[in-house]
Specification:
single chain, mainly alpha, 42 helices, flat, Serine/threonine-protein phosphatase 4 regulatory subunit 4, repeat, ARM-like, PPP4R4
Length: about 850
């Protein structure tokens, strides 16, 4: 069919056949160019469509046909790809019109499947399974309509198709009634399992028997199923014996302990001596999985000799079982633990140690006359064996008792953590948390290996280790022989460089997800190391990542971790320095990207800190971004405004609320970007519907107010603890009484989260800083050079700036040692913290002295 398009013409150039002996010297080069110039150019049309008009005509279906009629038509006269599409759509047809689908479509599918190809067969098996899972029809209807089709295609000549139908049948057996299973599946199975049947038929019979063992009573299994099982265990083909051997585990669970001992165990013993290596391997793995069903006599008299035989032959004769033996060794040793003599216990432990170094030494247990050069396949096998040993290491700690770890297993642990192959170290990194839990008070022994894995050359190992890094570090800091801070001091010297090295390696790699995950896990460090160490080694690094990294998830992870560090920082001078940098370098940064990250950081501040803290330090800097020259920044701010408003409390924050409303009005009047204006209007409607919480508790906001009040109390207690520590340093003569106070504060801080009723603290007066701005107009008129760039040199060791404000303010009480910042050293704060001029005069001398000390 001509669609009005002109066929393109492509000029086809005949290729020049070049001899392998062609001379490309300068004398012959011009001759080849002349030959190229003599080539003829031939016009040759190129076919644009993949189908001819005749083929398109055959594929065209009348649009007026409904779904059922179209499916019948395509199955009857369509091409294979159309028929496959109908079969794939069968679950949908069953949902829409099950009666007509069963009456008209399913018989056609049954006819087509006799001659269908592999693709349609696989599609049909999946479709039938989907119909069963979706319960489109009753079980009775399903067994009547679909079961016969499944059984007919079960013995397809293609192994993949046969396995697909078998998976569907096994799922159907789970829901079929017993009588249907017995008549439709079990009875025909007697003939299908005979030697006269095909290999594929007997393999299918093995798997069906394993499934049927849990569907019938014991006497039926003993009379009708066990004779077939014995017959298939003695089959002439090793594939059938191996397959039936692996089903013995399911059969044993169905027949109980007594029949397992009398019927299954003798078959397993015989199969364990089979001439086929795959049969012996299946028998060994089935024995390990059935250990719990055997009593002590069976384990000592039957299972243990077999296991010892496997271990002896694995090095000398039968290396095929070596990988499986190394994988199940932990389960095997603990399953036979009660019957081991001390000599046998030591023998199995030495066998495990030998496997842990397999392939790393020239003497690896082989005969002396065997060639020492290992093939590539052997090396892969040995790596897998050592990997399995690393997987079983926690189980072997239980086997030797954690108290004996240092004497019995530490050298093996060291070798596995320093293994030259990445998969082995990766497995050790995954299991390190389990090892740490088992060692409990002896966890300090593996500290060096933790540092080694943190500094591993492979990022895969690092990624595996950091999954449980917070839990491991917590065990390291609290579970050692030394308790509390002493344990921390022991772990810090080489742990902190290892942590910083790990972060730098992740940052320089292309695997940003590993870097993001690591930064998220580093948020646990305030519970592990001291506040000063975090401040000097990690906090500034987080700020650098926020400003320089190019991956948004990494920047957000760094921002949240930085906020956590700020939340638990114990020194107000450091806190104010970080806040100042966040405002100056992010909120007032030259790059709009940094200003966007400032808004992300503010979201985390609102999540982690109290409302009063956010309003005190970040409310006005956030509102300042309403005048940002970049539309994307203003747009993101508009999305954030409802959260910002939720931090306000009336009547305390009435002035801030007025400034927020003024900013919104200016945006509505002055915004020129239509997208931003649309979002502003939508945000205004949302803000109007919001209810502001008041200073007093309300039922609607009770839970949120409780959480916020708890955050305020924790922030206040951190400040009080810092003040007490300073007083202790100044008054060393009264160290005993002050240490008691510090201990009481720490205990109070730890138990704070468990209190159900929270009362606002009145123990600490809060002389706040001078507000930077009187109103929002002054904010908008000031340039970025003078808006928030004032430094805070007046923060000294003796000065104290509480995190909260009106929540903890008292008019009659005042704690000595509380100095405030003078007007010469302001930081961006909101108008909710009004300074007291009298207190400023009284504390001026102390403030100036603190400023000198800080300089």
């Amino acid at each position: 069919m001509d669609h009005g398009l002109t066929r393109p013409v492509v000029y086809y150039v005949h290729p020049l056949i070049i001899s392998s002996k062609m001379d490309f010297s300068q004398n012959n080069l011009f001759g080849y160019i002349e030959d190229l110039q003599e080539l003829t150019i031939i016009e040759r049309p190129v076919r644009r469509s993949l189908k001819t008009p005749e083929e398109i005509e055959r594929l065209t279906v009348d649009e007026e046909l409904n779904d059922i009629e179209r499916a019948v038509y395509l199955l009857s006269s369509g091409q294979d790809i159309q028929g496959t599409s109908v079969v794939a759509n069968l679950p949908v047809l069953m949902q829409q019109n099950p009666a007509e689908t069963l009456r008209r479509v399913l018989p056609k599918i049954r006819e087509v499947l006799h001659v269908a190809g592999v693709e349609m067969q696989l599609t049909a098996a999946v479709a039938f399974l989907t119909i069963l899972q979706e319960e489109s029809v009753s079980i009775h209807t399903y067994s009547h309509s679909f079961l016969h089709i499944i059984l007919q295609n079960l013995e397809h000549r293609d192994a993949g198709v046969s396995n697909a139908w078998l998976e569907t049948l096994l799922a159907v057996i789970e829901v079929l009634p017993k009588e249907t299973i017995r008549h439709e599946i079990l009875n025909p199975l007697v003939s299908k399992a005979q030697l006269s049947q095909t290999l594929q038929s007997r393999l299918v019979s093995c798997k069906i028997l394993g499934k049927l063992a849990n569907k019938f009573e014991t006497h039926i299994i003993k009379r009708e199923i066990l004779p077939l099982v014995k017959s298939l265990c003695q089959d002439v083909e090793y594939e059938v014996r191996s397959c039936m051997c692996r089903q013995l585990e399911h059969i044993a669970q169905g027949i109980g302990t007594e029949l397992t001992k009398n019927v299954v165990l003798p078959e397993l013993v015989e199969l364990a001596r089979d001439e086929g290596s795959s049969v012996r391997l299946a028998a060994f793995e089935t024995l390990v999985n059935l250990l719990e069903m055997f009593d002590a006599d069976d384990r000592s008299q039957t299972v243990l000799p077999l296991v010892k035989s496997f271990c002896e032959k694995s090095f000398k004769v039968d290396e095929s079982i070596l990988v499986s033996l190394s994988f199940h060794l932990g389960k095997l040793c603990n399953g036979l633990y009660g019957i081991f003599t001390p000599e046998q216990h030591l023998r199995f432990l030495e066998f495990y140690k030998k496997l842990c170094t397999l392939g790393l030494q020239q003497e690896n247990g082989h005969n002396d006359n065997q060639i020492q050069l290992q093939t590539l396949e052997q090396e892969k096998k040995y790596i897998l064996v050592r990997k399995n040993c690393a997987y079983n290491f926690p189980a072997m700690i239980v086997f030797v008792d954690p108290k004996n770890f240092h004497l019995e297993l530490y050298s093996t642990f060291f070798c596995l953590c320093h293994d030259p192959e990445v998969p082995v170290r990766y497995t050790m990194a995954i299991g390190l948390y389990e090892v740490a839990k088992l060692l409990d008070s002896g966890v300090y022994v593996i500290h060096k290996e933790l540092v080694t894995l943190l500094q591993d050359d492979s990022l895969e190992v690092l990624d595996a280790l950091i999954s449980h890094l917070p839990e491991i570090l917590e065990l390291m800091s609290t579970g050692g022989e030394n308790s509390g801070s002493e344990s921390k001091l022991l772990t810090v010297p080489d742990l902190i460089p290892a942590l910083t090295t790990a972060e730098q390696r992740a940052a320089t790699s292309l695997k940003w997800r590993t870097h993001e995950k690591l930064l998220q896990k580093y948020a646990c460090l305030p519970h592990i190391i001291s506040s000063d160490q975090i401040y000097y080694r990690f906090l500034h690094r987080m700020l650098t990542i926020i400003m320089t990294n190019n991956v948004l998830p990494v920047q957000k992870a760094a921002a949240r971790t930085l906020c956590v560090y700020l939340r638990y920082n114990r020194k107000q001078q450091q806190r104010h320095e970080v806040i100042q940098k966040l405002i100056e370098q992010l909120g007032q940064g030259k790059s709009y990207w940094n200003r966007l990250r400032f808004l992300d950081t503010c979201e985390f501040i609102m999540e982690l800190f109290s409302k009063s803290f956010f309003c005190k330090y970040f409310f006005l800097p956030v509102l300042e971004l309403t005048h940002d020259p970049v539309a994307n920044v203003r747009m993101k701010l508009c999305y954030l405004l409802p959260k910002v408003k939720s931090t306000l409390k009336v009547p305390t924050d009435k002035h801030l609320l007025q400034q927020l409303e003024l900013c919104i009005r200016k945006l509505l009047c002055q915004e020129k970007d239509k997208d931003v204006l649309t979002i502003v209007k939508r945000t205004v409607l949302e803000l109007d519907r919001m209810e502001i919480s008041v200073d007093a508790f309300q039922k609607r906001f009770f839970e949120n107010d409780l959480l916020d009040q708890e955050k305020e109390r924790e922030e206040q207690l951190l400040l009080e603890m810092e003040q007490l520590e300073k007083e202790k340093q100044q008054n060393e003569g009264r160290s005993t009484s002050m240490s008691d106070k510090i201990f009481e504060k720490k205990r109070k801080f730890c138990k704070e989260g468990k209190k159900s009723k929270l009362v606002r603290s009145q123990s600490f007066s809060t002389q706040a800083l001078h507000p930077k701005y009187g109103n929002i107009d002054k904010c908008s008129n000031k340039s970025s050079a003078t808006g928030y760039t004032s430094s805070i040199p007046g923060v000294g060791k003796g000065s104290m700036l509480p995190f909260s404000d009106d929540s903890f303010r008292t008019r009659s009480t005042n704690i000595s040692g509380n100095a405030v910042f003078s007007s010469s050293a302001p930081i961006a704060t909101s108008s909710r913290n009004t300074a007291n001029s009298v207190d400023q005069k009284n504390n001026g001398t102390k403030d100036s002295h603190s400023r000198k000390m800080s300089l």
